[in-house]
């Protein structure tokens, strides 16, 4: 792989434009990193593989960081992963230290991302060798485990998450039967014979539904200040920055490692990683009482973890073909277009492309520092843009993105339908990521389940007697039932006392 080729203008320009778009979307409250990637993927199809991948990876990392900018200044998270930054970051801004908080945030995001990518590079080959020993029985349970995890860690209760995952699996059965070739749930419509295309669904659920949500609440004032707290001058704001980072090196490493591990859990994502690392930092801190009052540790922990989680989500995506979060779920579809087939053989079949992905991810962490600094300084101008203009641009991007996939108005219709459907689901407090993972992992579950049953002539026992399968079944049962049993025993103990 030629690293210098990544700096050719044909790759570099889309890369930097993607990072700029990620900064813009991430710093705009209500527009998520998932939506940014969903809108950018159709455009990447017209670029060379390295340029398209650089654009997608650049958007995902910068959008996660940029969401911390309005969270710090306005107490409004730009993305869900930035919610934890509203605590100490906003308090620092109120004390006139918002610029310093964002500089700490920027460097920790870059360092956390670097650690996450390095762990991805180290662990991916080892996991791939392990995955080569898997059969259809193990892959079936692995996909089911990913779906159950996405339901457990999603916002809202577990039942709603499981219902969304089941609905996604049901939608994945539309099209031709994978064994017999018969049409299922197409009702004679030829546009459904290939199933429901993934990208229009993603754009509708995460792009158009956001617009509808904003229109529903149009005129309502957001909670918190509507203008950024005044700074006591930026001079001296960065004094002692590197000394602070060095003093927090243990916390940066701890949070980055935890963020990578949580990001690698299917369905967990950067928002869970940020809150988990914030809680762990609070428990292990020498000054836990300072948290929530403008503590440097309260900024370092979540911001190191959320970018590390973005890298961690690529681990199951590349090695097992199971997306770690909604962003990597979209990226899996893009990888197929570039003839990269995620799975245990990905390093053998697409070794050069995977090395390119690793290189792009590492360099993106370095590009993040100047790009993020420009984003911090430009935030005031972004605040002056009218919300109506931003929402109109999102609608146009959504329509163009859905149409450009196959030059089909039918896909635009699918996008519109799922935009309305996503808005309705969110009004009912039903999370969207499990639905998306159900749509992606549904074919994997069905294929491996039916393949296993064909091999065993209908015998279900191998799905439960093989060591890995039995371990996964027990782990799933513990995750789904364990918390409820714990609460039941705790309540009984309280009654007896």
Number of helices: 22
Low-confidence stretches: 221-230, 232-236
Distance between the termini: 67 Å
- What structural class do you assign from the helix and strand content? mainly alpha
* Assembly status: single chain
Q: Could you tell me the radius of gyration in angstroms?
A: 23 Å
Spatial sequence of strands, sheet with the most strands: 1-2
Instruction: Kindly state the number of beta strands.
Output: 2
Mean pLDDT: 80
- Give the overall shape: globular
Fraction of residues in helix: over 70%
Domains counted in the coordinates: how many?
Answer: 2
Can you characterise this structure?
The protein is 71% helix and 1% strand. It is an all-alpha fold and 497 residues long. The protein has two domains: 3-465, no CATH class; 466-497. A hairpin with a 6-residue loop joins strand 1 (175-176) and strand 2. The protein is globular and about 70 Å long. The model is unreliable at 221-230 and 232-236 (pLDDT under 50).
């Amino acid at each position: 792989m030629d690293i210098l080729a990544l700096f050719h203008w044909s790759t570099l320009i889309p890369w930097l434009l993607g990072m700029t778009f990620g900064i813009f979307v991430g710093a705009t409250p209500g527009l998520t990193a998932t939506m940014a990637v969903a809108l950018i993927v159709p455009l990447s199809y017209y670029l060379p593989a390295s340029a398209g991948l650089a654009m997608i990876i650049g958007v995902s990392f910068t959008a996660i960081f940029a969401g911390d900018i309005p969270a710090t200044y306005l107490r409004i998270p730009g993305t869900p992963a930035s919610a934890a930054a509203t605590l100490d970051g906003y308090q620092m801004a109120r004390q006139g230290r918002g610029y310093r908080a964002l500089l700490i945030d920027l460097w920790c995001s870059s360092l956390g991302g670097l650690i996450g990518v390095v762990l991805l590079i180290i662990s991916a080959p080892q996991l791939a060798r392990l995955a080569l020993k898997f059969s259809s029985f193990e892959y079936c349970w692995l996909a089911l485990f990913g779906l159950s995890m996405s339901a457990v860690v999603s916002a809202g209760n577990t039942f709603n998450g499981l219902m969304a995952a089941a609905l996604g699996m049901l939608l994945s059965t539309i099209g031709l039967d994978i064994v017999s070739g018969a049409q299922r749930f197409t009702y004679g419509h030829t546009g459904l014979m290939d199933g429901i295309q993934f990208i229009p669904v993603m754009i509708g659920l995460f792009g158009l539904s956001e617009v509808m949500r904003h229109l529903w609440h149009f005129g309502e004032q957001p909670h918190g200040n509507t203008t950024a707290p005044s700074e006591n001058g930026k001079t001296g704001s960065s004094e002692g920055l590197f000394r602070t980072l060095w003093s927090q090196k243990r916390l940066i490493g701890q949070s980055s490692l935890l963020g990578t591990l949580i990001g690698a859990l299917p369905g967990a994502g950067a928002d869970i990683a940020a809150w988990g690392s914030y809680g762990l930092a609070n428990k292990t801190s020498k000054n836990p009482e300072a948290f929530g009052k403008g503590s440097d540790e309260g900024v370092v922990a979540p911001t190191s973890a959320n970018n590390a989680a973005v890298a961690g989500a690529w681990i199951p995506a590349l090695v097992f073909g199971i997306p770690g979060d909604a962003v990597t779920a979209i990226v899996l579809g893009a990888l197929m277009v570039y003839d990269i087939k995620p799975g245990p053989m990905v390093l053998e079949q697409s070794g050069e492309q995977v090395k390119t992905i690793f290189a792009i991810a590492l360099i993106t962490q370095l590009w993040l520092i100047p790009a993020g600094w420009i984003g911090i300084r430009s935030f005031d101008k972004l605040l002056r843009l009218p919300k109506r203009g931003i929402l109109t641009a999102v609608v146009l991007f959504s329509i163009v993105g859905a149409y450009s996939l196959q030059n089909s108005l039918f896909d635009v219709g699918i996008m519109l339908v799922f935009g309305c459907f996503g808005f309705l689901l969110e009004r009912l407090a039903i999370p969207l990521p499990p639905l998306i993972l159900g749509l992606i992992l549904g074919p994997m579950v069905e294929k491996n389940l039916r393949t296993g049953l064909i091999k065993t002539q209908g015998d279900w026992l191998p799905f439960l007697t093989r060591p890995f399968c039995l371990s996964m079944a027990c782990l799933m049962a513990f995750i789904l039932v364990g918390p409820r049993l714990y609460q039941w025993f705790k309540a009984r103990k309280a009654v007896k006392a």
